[in-house]
Design a protein that fits this description.
The protein is an alpha/beta fold. It contains seven helices and six strands, in the order H-E-H-E-E-H-E-H-E-E-H-H-H. A six-stranded parallel sheet has the order 3-2-1-4-5-6, covered by helices on one side. Strand 1, helix 2 and strand 2 form a beta-alpha-beta unit. Helix 2 packs antiparallel against helix 6, helix 3 runs parallel beside helix 4 and helix 5 packs antiparallel against helix 6. The two termini are about 25 Å apart.
Length: about 190
């Protein structure tokens, strides 16, 4: 069980927050980032989702507000240099962040790994929040949002549902657990 207290404290203290996921993103990383973006914006945090890869067309429905950006060093490095906190979703390995990860390391940005996969990049993140019993990173984000007493908007719930649905193969994969079916997002 994750103790969400420390990350909540970091989020509340941060002014600028980067959200990102691995190259060639999937629904879990994208949905988790989208859900967190909607929560952070609701609590008036300046945040951006910047990914190393373009948003796959099948996830365009998560991008109604044009919240996903594709990393371009000329456009993004200055802003990333000023972030207080980077939240990385479902990455598994720091190297899968490519240029974004390199810039975060170079600027010594406090970087939190939130994942349900074992961390293969030990020591690269400032903090690891890993729960290998979770069916998806989206399940972990749901638990954080409960801890944070978040407002569950439709857009936030779309992100959570996308994360959990895609990583469980529409609730058919063997990682599907009881919790997936108990999550009450609306």
């Amino acid at each position: 069980m994750i103790n969400w207290k420390s990350i909540h404290k970091n989020i509340m203290a941060a002014d600028n927050i980067l959200l990102t996921t691995h190259e060639n993103p999937d629904g879990d990383g994208l949905g988790s980032a989208a859900a967190m973006w909607h929560h952070l914006r609701f609590i008036n945090k300046n945040c951006r989702i910047i990914n190393i890869s373009k948003l796959p067309a099948e996830f365009d429905f998560l991008n109604k507000n044009k919240i996903f950006e594709t990393y371009d060093p000329e456009l993004h490095d200055n802003w990333i240099s000023k972030v207080d906190l980077a939240l990385v979703f479902d990455v598994g390995d720091f190297g899968r962040l490519r240029g974004i990860g390199e810039h975060l390391s170079e600027k010594n940005i406090y970087t939190v790994n939130i994942d349900h996969h074992p961390d293969t990049g030990k020591g690269k993140f400032s903090q690891d929040l890993i729960d290998t019993s979770a069916a998806a990173t989206g399940e972990m984000i749901y638990n954080y949002l409960l801890f944070a007493d978040a407002e569950f908007s439709l857009e936030l719930c779309d992100g959570l549902y996308t994360a959990i649905l895609t990583d469980t193969g529409s609730f058919r994969h063997n990682n599907t657990n009881e919790i997936c079916h108990e999550i009450d997002i609306l």
